[in-house]
Amino acid sequence: MQDINWVALIVFVALFAFITWLGFAAAHWRRGDLDVLHEWGLGGRRFGTIIAWFLIGGDLYTAYTFIAVPALAFGAGAIAFFAVPYTIMIYPILFIVFPRLWAVSQKHGYITPADFVRGRFGNRWLALAITITGIVATMPYIALQLVGLQVVIGGLGIVGTGFVGDLPLIIAFVILAAFTYSSGLRAPAAIAIVKDTLIYITAFTAVIVIPYQLGGFDKIFAAVPATKLLLAPPPANSTGSYGIYASLAFGSALALFLYPHSLTGILSASSGHAVRRNAALLPAYSFMLGLLALLGFMAIALGLDKLPEYAAGFKAFSNNFAVPALFLNQFPSWFVGVAFAAIGIGALVPAAIMSIAAANLFTRNVYREFIHAGCSDREEAQMAKWVSLVVKLGALIFILALDTQYAIQLQFLGGIWIIQTLPALIIGLYTRWFNPWALLIAWFIGTAAGTWMWATATPAFTAVYALTIGGWTIPHYTAVSTLLLNLVVAAVLTPLFNMMGEKPVDETLASDYAM
Amino acid sequence: MSDPTNNSNSADYGWSWWYLLLLAQFIPALWVSSYNRAEPAWIGMPFFYWYQLALVFICAAVTAFVYFVTQSRRT
Q1: Between chains, do B9 and A514 touch, taking CB under 8 Å as contact?
Q2: Are B59 and A78 within 8 A, CB to CB?
Q3: Does A260 touch chain B (CB under 8 A)?
Q4: Which pLDDT value is given to residue A57?
Q5: Closest CB to B56 among A88, A100, A294
Q6: What is the CA radius of gyration of chain B?
Q7: Distances in Å between the alpha carbon of A513 and those of A297, A442, A509?
Q8: What's the gap in Å between the CA of B45 and the closest CA on chain A?
């Protein structure tokens, strides 16, 4: 691989040092009692529209996204652009549905999605299912953030084997763990402002400067092979790539705000209106993501994978090296440092929020619910801090010990799993018509079917499954069909369970869902 | 049943017919065959790419519009 790029490395380390300081200093920002869980884990629900914009944007558009979407464009072409319709659809959902969740959570002091489900349906086992799904789906997501970090560290020219090779990642992890422990959600909120500013600078510089240097977009697209330029039209009796593209966008959009870390971001906003304003302002990130996807095509136009200086990088990280190679090839060293820091810091922000979200879930919905019901607020917050460390350690060991491929495959599975919580969480915000036991069984069946389809898909352990119905082949995102199955089962079983006994009490009132 | 003041409040995050405008955004986004084409290209970008990027802007504008309409209706 290339030698260590000292200028880039110094800029990178300087920016990392700055955000480390910022992460610890954030503990004093809008001061609150960090020994209380909603202060540590939700920043006291005090973030106004602008901070929430940075926080939610920094939370949803992760480092891995910035690496993986262009990598998919580089390797597979047009299909990568599904990220654009996906992000178009998430904001109407955010706008309509989630101010309701914000309001009811504020009123009852809910911190996690499972808190809401527990209160709404009065069934601790259903809440436990929501909790487990949330934690399990989040773990590979955290691991993938570390992959993003690994790729840029490799891009800086730091390579080695064994402990020395892993050392930079371990240092970054220790920094992340320490400031999350001490400052809670305030740390990623403060750092997100720096991260997003750097990402915007990098993205707009890249999409203006690189096409200019390459002689315009026509030159770039002319270099993209025809098979990658557009989606392949579907063959006879099949919905083909169109169905895959649309269902990936739709299913991913439905799943996004079910992830615990998305909800942590939303619940930390200071009002339902702040959430709503963000639904109108956040598409700025969608546009940027679309532009970033085009970086994959720029990497194709430059033939970066054929250049000897990047051969080792592509060998180590495969297509995920497309973006780092593009920056190394096109930018002066100091700006490579800025761009890599943007991605690296972009990994820490969501990783911190995800670990906080998982910690909140475990503490509230497992520890307090099943293990130590009488724990004090202080014990609860302390437990969450410890759990956030354990979660991150788990993700680190996962990435260091196992191949990246496993984290990606489990991330696919996580999306299929998390969407199974939609009936209880999103539909539950509007009606409690569904019986909680019916929801629990339907959740189990949806999850089991999704897992089976994931394992038996071609290729195995991916999220696109080809269903055959009446002579039609429908390859689609597994999350969508298993969600349908889940809803049908829940609807069929609800009248049966209602006959068997009284529904438990709903602790929320219709008026709780408004401001 | 809840008292009338509660009812007027609960309309806040309830349903508004303007939300249909938000959900209508799903149609162009999911109608893949309508935009899976290269022509007309714009500044060298095939239709497939610039159309979807333009759609982001249009949908953001629609969301902002619905925000202001539902906001002023309440006050």
Answers
A1: yes
A2: no
A3: no
A4: 87
A5: A88
A6: 18
A7: 46, 25, 8
A8: 6
Q: What is the pTM of this model?
A: 0.92
Taking the Cβ of residue A334 and every Cβ of chain B, the question of whether any pair is shorter than 8 Å is answered with no
Cα–Cα dist A46/A143, whole Å: 29
Question: With a cut of 50, which residues of chain A have pLDDT below it?
Answer: 1
Instruction: Give per-residue pLDDT as tens, A114-157.
Output: 999 999 999 999 999 999 999 999 998 898 888 888 899 988 88
3-state secondary structure of A488: helix
Tokens of A283: 């598409």
**Residue that has been written with the tokens 């330029």 in this structure:** A229
Query: Which distant-in-sequence residues (6+ apart) come within 8 Å of A319 by Cβ?
Result: A71, A72, A74, A75
Fold of A6-413: Sodium/glucose cotransporter (1.20.1730)
CB-based contact B41 A218, cutoff 8 Å: yes
DSSP secondary structure of A109-152: T--SHHHHHHHHH--HHHHHHHHHHHHHHHHHHHHHHHHHHHHH
All residues of chain A having their beta carbon less than 8 Å from the beta carbon of residue B41 are 218, 221
Q: Is the pLDDT of residue B2 over 60?
A: no
Residues A174-189: pLDDT tens digits?
998 998 999 999 999 9
Confidence of residue B13 (pLDDT cuts 50, 70, 90): low
Q: Are A493 and A437 in contact (CB under 8 A)?
A: yes
- Residue with token string 């504008």: B61
